[in-house]
Amino acid sequence: MTRGVGPLMAMVSIAWGLVWVASQVVVHPPLPAQTTLVVGLIATNLAILGYPSVLRGPRQRRRRRGRAEGDVASLVRLGTGTGALRQGLTPEAAERTVDLLQPLLGGDAVAITDREHMLAFAGPGADHHTPGSALWAPERERVLRTGRSAISTSVVCRHSGCPLRSAAFAPLTVGDEVVGTVTVYRQTATPPRLELVEGVAGVLSLHLELAGLEAQARLSTDTQLEVLRAQINPHFLFNVLNTIASKARTDPDETRQLLLRLADFFRYAIDQRSQFAEFAQEYFFVRTYVTLEQARFGDALRVEYDVDPQVLGVRVPVLMIQPLIENAIKHGLSRKVGRGTVTLRARVDPLASSLDILVRDDGVGMDAATLRSLRNGRRGGTGHGPEAFDDPADVPPLRRGGIGLRNIDERLALLFGDRYDLTVRSRESDGTDVRLRIPLR
Amino acid sequence: MPARRPDAEPDPEDALSFPAEGLADLQEYDAPAEVDAAFVTQRRIAVGYCLVFLLVTFAIPVLTVSSGWWTDARVVGGMSPSFLMAAVVLYVFFVGLGVAAATLADGAEDRMLGRAGGSDREDGA
Amino acid sequence: MSAQTFALLLVLGAIGTLVSITARARGRATTLDFYLAGRRVGTFTNACAICGDYFSAASFLGVAAAVYASGLDGVWYAAGFAAGFVPVLLFVAAPLRRFGRISLPDFLGERFGSERVRVTAVVVVQLVVLAYLVPQAVGSGITWELLVGRGFGGLSPYATGVVISAALIAALVVIGGMRGTTWNQALQFVLLLTVLLWLATLVFSAGFSYPSGVEEASSSALLVPAQDGASLTTVPDRLRPDREAIFGTPGARYGGLGQFALLTTLMLGTAGLPHIMNRYFTSPTGRSTRFTTVWVLGLAGAFYALAVMLGTAARVTIAEHADDTAWLAELTIDGVLRVPEHALLALGRIHAGVPGLGLVATAAFAAMISTIGGLLLAAAASWGHDVYERYLNPRATQRQAIRAGQLAVGVASAVAAVIALALEPARLSGNFPSVVALLVTWAFALAGSALSPVLMLSIWWRGTSVNGAIAGMSVGTVTVLVALAIGLLRGGDTDDLGSLLLAPTLLAAPLATLTTVVVSRTDGPPPGLTDVWLRMHGTAADRQVERFARLAARQGRGT
C-alpha cells in the first residue's frame, strides 16, 4: 500500500504545481481562481482514476466457455483415444469418424468427403448418400476451392426422398491444401452452427496433419535423403564438416557455433511443407548458409546484401534463394584467385507487381558455350553427379552451371506459369548475374 | 486448433540436442480462443486511447469557441494557449499518447499470446 | 531571372532529383539491423520512408502557406496531418500488416472473401490517388511559376510547370526505374527535414523570435489579398463576428463548425491513403508497425512544428522586406504575398539569396517527386495487381504486367495534369487561399470517409458483411463528392456550412459507418472468419519471424 500511495501523492502535487504555474505565473492575464480550481480538480481526479489501472495493467478477459468448446473438448478426447483419422483420409477412418461425430454436432446427418467423392455418411439420407458417390453440393465445391466454410439453407439433392434441408460445410486442410470437407446436415431449414462445424473440422485437420507427419516419419531414410539431396548439395555438407573438424581442436567455440548453424540450416530445410515462405525466413536461411560457407573460405568470400526492407514480407518459393547463392559461391569463386564478392539484391517493383532478385558474383564467369547450353537446358550427361568430384572445378562445365538452375526453372514454371523471369548473364572472368523476377504475392 | 507453444526453447548453447519434436518446433500456432481474448483486450485499449485522443484534440476547437481566455491570454510573447497548443504541445501529446498506446498493446500481446522463447530485447547486436 | 541563376537552379534541381532516385544504401547487414540492432534503427528507417511518402507539396509548402494566409486557422492543417497517424497506430497498423496482403483493395478483398469488395475498393483507391495527385501538380505549377517565371510552348508558366512535372515524373517512374524504395524515400524525407531545419536556423539567426513574431503578426488585423487582386482587405473573425481576425487567434477562416470539420477530415484521412498504407504492409512484423508509427508521429510533429514556425516567420519577415526588395515587391501587395505558397520560397530567398531559393525549391520538388512517384506506383500496383492480373488477363506474362503498370502510370498522371491545368490558382486564390492544402483536404476527405470507416470496422467488428463494406464505401464516396460539388457551387467556405461541405468527413464518415453497420446486419458476416481473425489478431506469424531473427542475431555475434 505504501508503494502505491507515494507516487500518487507525488503525481497529484506535481499536477497542482503545473496548474498553478501554467495559470498564474506564465499566462497574462492569470486565470481566475474558479477556473484554476476546476482545472486542478479535473487533473487530480484523472490522476486518481488512471493510476490504479496503470498499476494493474490490462485486464484479462475471462474466457467464455460455451457449449461449442465443451463439445469440441470431448471430441478431442474421443478422437485422441481412438485416433480414427490418424490413418489419413481413408474411407474406413472416415466411417468411424462420422459415427463418432453424428450425435455430437447438433445436426441430423454427418458426411466426410475427400476432394472427389463422398467417403462416409451417417444419418438420415444414408441410403442414397453412399460412400464413393460423387459430390453434389455446389457449396462444397466452393469450400474445396477457397478453403472457407459455407452454409446452405436449401440443399438440393437429386434424390426425391431426401430429408435433408440445410447444411454447414467446413474444409479439412493439411497445411495449405484443402483435402476434403466435413458436412453437417439438418432436416430443418435452420442450418447447424458453423463455429461448431469449423471447430470440428479443425480438430480433424489436425489429426490428418499428424497422420501425414507420421507417414513421413515412416518413410525410409533413403527417401528423406533423396529429398535432402535434391535440395542441398551433400558436397556442401562434407565441406562444412571438414572445416568443423579442422577447427575442433584450435577453436572449440567456433566449432560449437558452426555445428549449431548446421543444425539450424537442416531444420529449416527439412521442415518446409508448403511451397512458399516469407522472404524474411528465406533471407535468414541464406545468412545461416553463408555463415557456414564463410567458415570455410574465410576472407576470400565476401557476401553483400542489398535488400530493401519492403521485400521482407513478400512470399517467395521456399528454398529458392539459397541455391542461387550456393551456385554463385561455388561456380564463381572457387576457382578465382583472391577475394570474391557475392551480392544479393532484392527489390519490389510495384509497377510490374513483381519481386526482383539479383544474385551477382564477380568470379570466373561462364564462357559462351556454357551459357548457351544452360539456356537450351541440355542435360549434362548421365552417371556421376557433381558430388562425385572432389573439387567442384573439375565438374564438367555443363553440369557445373546447369542442374541447380534447371531445377529452379522447373519449379518456377510449375508455380507461376508464364509470369516469371529467370535470366543468366555471364562473361568469362567477368562474373555472373542471375536475375529472378516473380509476381508479388 | 489447440495451441502448441514451445514452453522453453531448448537452449542451443548447452547441449547439441536435435529435439525429437524438432520437426514441428519451427511452427508457431495460435489458439482461436486466445486470439479472441487478446482481440477484445486490444480493442478496449485502442478505444480507450482513442477516447483520450479525441477528448484532447477536440477540446481545442471547443475551447476556442467557448472560452475567451483560451484565445486571449498570452503565455509567452504573443502566443495564446490556443496557439501554443496547436503549434507545439499537440505534437508532443501525440507522441506521448503513441508511445503509451504502443507499449501497452505490445505488452498485452506478449502476455496474452506469448513470446517465442523470451524477449528479443536482450539481443542487441 | 538571369541565365546564371537559372542554370544554378537547374543544377540544384538535378542534384535533388538524382539524390532522390539513385541513392542506395550500401553496407552489409543493413537489413539485419532492421530487425535487431535495437529495434529502433529498423523501424526508424521505415518511419522515414513513410514520412517521405506522406510529406508532399502540401506539407512542405502548403502548411506554411496556410499559416501565412490564415494564421492560427492554418495551423490546423499541421495538427490534422500529424493527428492522422494516431488512428492508424491505434486501429489499423498492426492488424493490417498481420493479415499480410499487399494493398488496401487486396486486404479488403481477402478479408471478406469477395471480389466485389475488392473492385469497389480499387475504384475508391484510384479516386483517392487522383485527388491527391492534383494538388501535387498544382504545387509544381506554382513553384515553377515562381522559380522560372517563364512558360514554354505558348503555355503559361503555371501550365508549363504542371505539364513538365507530370510528364517528367511519369517518365521517371516508367523509364527511369524509380520504384520508391525504402532508402530513397527515407533519404527524401531527411533532405526535406534538413532544409526546414536549415531555414529555421537562418530565420533565428537573423533575429526572429517566435513569441514576438506571433505578437507582431497579431498586433494588427490580418490582411489578405482582396478579390480584385490589387489591394488588401481584412477578414472578419468568424468566431467573434464583431471583430476582425488577427494572426494569432483562430477564426480567420473557420467558424466553430469549420474548425471541427477540418480537423476531423484530416484526422481520419491518413488511414485511408493507399500509398501510405502500402508501406505498412512492408514492415517485417505486425508488432514493429506500432513503433514505426510512433516514430512517424515524432518526425511529423517536429516537421510540422517547424513549418508552422516558418509560416509565422514568413508573415513577419516578408512584410518587413517587401518594400526594399524588387523581386519581393512583385510578388506582394503592400507586403502581403499574393500567392501564399510562395511563403517558404520567399523566405529562402530573403535569407540566403538565390541559392537559398534554389535549395527550398529543390526540397519542394523532391517532396513532390517522391510523393507523386509513390502515388503513381500505388495506382499502378492497384491497377496491375488487383484488376489487370485478376480479371482482364489472368495469364499475363511478365512483359504484359509491366505494360499494364506503365499504362496506369501514364493515364493517372495525364488526368491529374489536366485537372490541375483547369484549376489555375490565381483565379481561385481570391476564394481559396492556400489552394494546395485545400485540395489535399479533399483527398483526405475521400480517403477518410470512403476507406477509413470500412477499414476500421472490418478489422474490429466481426459482423461486417460484404454488402455492408460495399455500401459503406459507396456511400462515403458519393457523400463526399456531392458535398464538394455543392460546396463549390455555393461559392466556397465563406460560412460554416461552406466549410463543412468542403471538408465533409464530419458528415460522410458517420454516414458511411452507419450504412455499413445497418447493411451488415441484413446479410451477415462472411464465413471462415475464424481463420481471418487468427491471421489479423494472432501473433503466430510475428513470433515466427522474430524467432528467425533471433537465430540470425546469434549468428551475427558468432561471425
Your description of this structure?
Chain A has three domains: about 55 residues; about 150 residues, Beta-Lactamase; about 220 residues, 2-Layer Sandwich (Heat Shock Protein 90), CATH 3.30.565. In chain A, strands 2-1-5-4-3 form a five-stranded antiparallel sheet, sandwiched between helices. In chain A, about 50% of the residues lie in helices and about 20% in strands. With about 450 residues, chain A is α+β, with helices and mostly antiparallel strands. In chain A, α9 runs antiparallel to α10. Chain B is mainly α and about 120 residues long. In chain B, about 60% of the residues lie in helices and about 0% in strands. The relative contact order of chain B is 0.13. The N terminus and C terminus of chain B are likely disordered. With about 550 residues, chain C is mainly alpha-helical. Chain C has a single domain, classed as Sodium/glucose cotransporter (Up-down Bundle), CATH 1.20.1730. Chain C is globular. Chains B and C meet through α2 and α4 of B and α5, α6, α11, α12 and α14 of C.
Give a quick summary of the entry.
The complex is a heterotrimer of chains A (441), B (125) and C (559). With 441 residues, chain A is of the alpha+beta class.
The sequence of SSEs of chain A as H and E is: HHHHEEHEEEHHHHEHEEHEEHHEE
Runs of chain B in which pLDDT lies below 50 for 5 or more consecutive residues are 1-24, 116-125
Low-pLDDT runs of 5+ residues of chain A are 57-74, 77-82, 378-403
Helical residue percent band of chain B:
55-70%
CATH superfamily of the largest domain in chain A: Histidine kinase-like ATPase, C-terminal domain
